Amino acid sequence: MASNILPVAHHRQYRTMRTSLNRTVTRREVWAWAMYDFANSGYTTVVITAIFNAYFVSVVADNQPWATFAWTAALAVSYAAIMFTAPLLGAYADAYAAKKKLLALTTAGCVTFTALLAFSGPGSLWLTIALIVLSNFFYGSGENLVAAFLPELARGNALGKVSGWGWSLGYVGGLVSLGACLAYVTWAQAQGQQAADFVPMTMLITAALFALSSLPTFLFLKERAVPQPHLQGKNLMQESYMRLKQTLAHAQHYRDLRRFLICTVFYQAGIQAVITLAAIYAQQAMHFTTQQTILLIFVVNITAAVGAFLFGHLQDRIGHIPAIALTLVGWIVMILLAWAAEGPVMFWVAANLAGVCMGASQSAGRALVGLLSPATRRAEFFGLWGLAVKLSAILGPLTYGLVSWLSQGDHRLAILITGSYFLVGLAILVGVDVRRGRRAALRSKF
Questions:
Q1: Contact in structure between 92 and 98 (CB atoms under 8 Å)
Q2: Rounded CA gap, 340 and 443, in Å?
Q3: What's the total number of domains in the chain?
Q4: Torsion angle (degrees, nearest 10) of CA 298, 301, 303, 304
Q5: Interatomic CA distance for residues 347 and 274, integer angstroms
C-alpha cells in the first residue's frame, strides 16, 4: 500500500507544479530562480539582521549614543541610491532584455563588498559605512531584478504560490549561512576570541556562500524577455529616462498598482525596521548575548520559511488582499508583544510571529506586483516596487533610530512608534481592487 501511495503523491506534486508554471518553464528553471533567493538571503540575514548590525553598534561605533542612528543612516543612503536607480535599471532591462546580465553585475558587487567587510573593526567607522552602503546597494538592486523573472515563470493564478516557493527557499538559505556562522562563532568563542576577531570571518563565509549558491541561477535561468523597440536618437541613459517618464505618464491607468505601492511604502517601513534592528533590539532591550541573538534569528528564519510557503498557497486561495491584510494584523500583534515583553519567553513568541508574518507579507507583496504589472514592463514596474520598498527601508529604520537617539536609548518606545506604519498600511490596502488592477495590466498597449 505504502509503495503505491508514494508514486501517487509524487504525481500530484508534479501536476501541481506543472499547472503552476508557464508552458515552456521547467522545474529545474524554477529551482534555479528560487536558488537566488536562497543565495542572497545569507547577506540580509547575517549582515543586516543577525550579526553585523549589532557588531557595528557595539564594536565599530563603540556603543556611542548615535550608534544605532548611524547604522540606520548608512542603510538609508544605500536605499536612497537604489530608489534613484531601480526604475532606470528596470527600464534598461526591459528595453534590452538584460535582466540576467544586470543580475550578474549586482551579484558580483554584493559578494565583493560583503567580503571586504572582513576589514571592519574598531577605528574603521567610515570604511565600514562605505562598505555597507555599497554592499546593500548591490543586494537591493539584484533583489528587484530577480523578482522581475517571476511573471515569466508562473501562471497568473499561481504567482503567490511560486513566489512563496522562492521566498521560503530563501529563508532556508538564510539558515544555512547563519548556521555556518553560528558554528564558527561557537568555535571561536570557545577559543577565547572576541567579536572583533570572529565577526569579520563571518563576512567571508557569507560572501562565499552567496557566490556559490547563486551559480544555478546563472546556469539554468533563461532570459525570456525580448528587446523592445529603441527610441531613435537617444543613448542608453536617455532612453531609460524616457521609458520611465512614459511609465509615470501612464500611471493613471494603474490606479490599484499605484495604491498598492503606496501601501507597500508604509507596511514595509515597519518590516524593514524589524529586519534591520532585530539583533540590536534583542541585545539592547532584552540583553541577549551574540550567541543567543544568532540562535533567535536562526529559529525565526525557520518560521519565516514556513510562513512564506504556506501563505503562498493560502494567498492564491483566499485572495491577495485578504492574505496581506491578515499578515499586517499579525505584525501589529507582534509589535505589541515585543513592546510588552519583560522576559525572553514573550519576546521569543513575538519574534517567531514576526517570522511567520515576514515570509508571508513579503512573498505576497511580490506576487501581487507581478499580477498588476503589464507584460512588457515587468522589470520596470518591479523597479517601481523596489523604489517603494527602499523608501520604506529609509523611513522605518530611520524612525526607529531617531526615536532611540532622542529618547536616550529607549528601544521599546522606538519599536512601538515604528509599529504605527502597519496600521497606516492596512488602512490603505483596503482600497486596492485586484480584479480591476489585473484588467488594467492586461489591457496595456505600451
A1: yes
A2: 49
A3: 1
A4: 170
A5: 13
Question: 368: domain range?
Answer: 24-222+241-442
Distances (CA, A) of 179 to 25, 118, 174, 186, 301: 32, 18, 8, 10, 11
How many of the other CB atoms lie within 10 Å of CB of 408?
Answer: 7
* Residue 41 belongs to domain with CATH number: 1.20.1250.20
With respect to residue 354, please indicate whether it lies within any of the assigned structural domains: yes
Mean pLDDT check: name the lowest of 5-19, 114-128, 147-161. 5-19
Asked whether the beta carbons of 280 and 415 are under 8 A apart, the reply is no
Is 291 domain-assigned? yes
Rounded Cα–Cα distance for residues 163 and 253 (Å): 25
In the structure grid, which three cell numbers stand for residue 126, read together?
Answer: 567610515
At 21 the three-state DSSP class reads: strand
Question: Hey, what's the cell of 41?
Answer: 538571503
Grid cell, residue 308, equals 512564506
Instruction: Judge whether 230 lies within some domain.
Output: no
| pLDDT digits 0-9 by tens, 171-198 | 889 889 999 998 999 999 899 998 889 9
C-alpha 283/C-alpha 19 separation (Å) is 46
Backbone angles phi, psi at 154, to 5 degrees: -105, 150
Q: What percent of the chain has pLDDT over 90?
A: 37
**For residue 38, which amino acid is it?**
F
In a domain? residue 362 = yes
Backbone angle region of 86, left / alpha / beta, with phi > 0 → left and psi within -120 to 50 → alpha: alpha
